[in-house]
Amino acid sequence: MLNTLFDTHAHFTGQDAEIRELLDRALENGIGYIMAVGGDETLNDGALRASKIDAGVKVFHALGYDRDQAGRSDLPALEFADAKAIGEIGLDYHYEGASAKAQCELFAAQLEKAREHDLPVIIHTREADDDTLGVLREIPSRGIIHSFTGSPQFCRQLLDLGFMISYSGIVTFRAADNVRESAIIVPDDRILIETDTPYLAPVPMRGKSNEPAFVAYTARFLADLRKTPLDAFAALTTSNALSLLG
């Protein structure tokens, strides 16, 4: 499995030396690829810097503005020339339901930007199933639903729209039965893995700051859940991610 895993979602905010340490540990634990993901000015900067560090791991980057940036009129323009995706973008009504309209507007605008640049999108959706589906049906797109936490029904609806479904350490949590149920039904050619670094560390690392090296725990858990040999699961999830990125 050496260097075959692909962490499709990691955020980087530290100094370059700190990022390099994370990448070095990732390489030591069999991670060959990482998608460094933006979401605001700080995360976009971190994604760009991570993608320029030569540490033996291939780091791609995605740039975008997440739901917390909704309603802002001062968002800097982004340069997508070297980006492999636009993200993370999307909707989250768990804490910010009052900003639903502004979130949908920002989400839609970035889906249009992705179509303009022919790029996949990386989507966050939490407690916003209906609006997420509504916007995606209005603006057909391709890409990843990251750190999926919804129901099997919602999962099937997103699969019907052509999306890949990515699982974070949440799938290993005791109370995440619905996430595990959805992870079983995703076809082999549509499933991905991620850490969402520095959040959502999987069991047995739960409670620690997450990092790309820990995606190996999620891969092992999902391989067991889906009754697939670990090497085969690592290969197919990496192949899926590389296929999406062209």
Précis, in short:
With 246 residues, the protein is an alpha/beta fold. Helices cover 41% and strands 19% of the residues. The chain is built from nine helices and eight strands.
What does this structure look like?
With 246 residues, the protein is α/β, with parallel strands linked by helices. The protein has a single domain, classed as TIM Barrel, CATH 3.20.20.140. It is 41% helix and 19% strand. The protein is built from 9 helices and 8 strands. It has an 8-stranded parallel sheet with strand order 1-2-3-4-5-6-7-8. Strand 1, helix 1 and strand 2 form a beta-alpha-beta unit. Helix 6 runs parallel beside helix 7. The longest helix has 18 residues. The protein is globular. The mean pLDDT is 96.
Task: Report how far the terminal alpha carbons are from each other.
Answer: 22 Å
The coarse overall form would be: globular
Output the CATH topology. Answer: TIM Barrel
Number of strands: 8
Largest sheet: 8 strands, parallel
* Residues in helices, as a percent range: 40-55%
Strand order across the largest sheet: 1-2-3-4-5-6-7-8
Task: Name the CATH superfamily assignment.
Answer: Metal-dependent hydrolases
Mean pLDDT: 96
Total count of helical runs of at least 4 residues: 9
Quaternary organization: single chain
CATH class: Alpha Beta
Top keywords for this entry?
246 residues, alpha/beta, 9 helices, 8 strands, 41% helix, 19% strand, globular
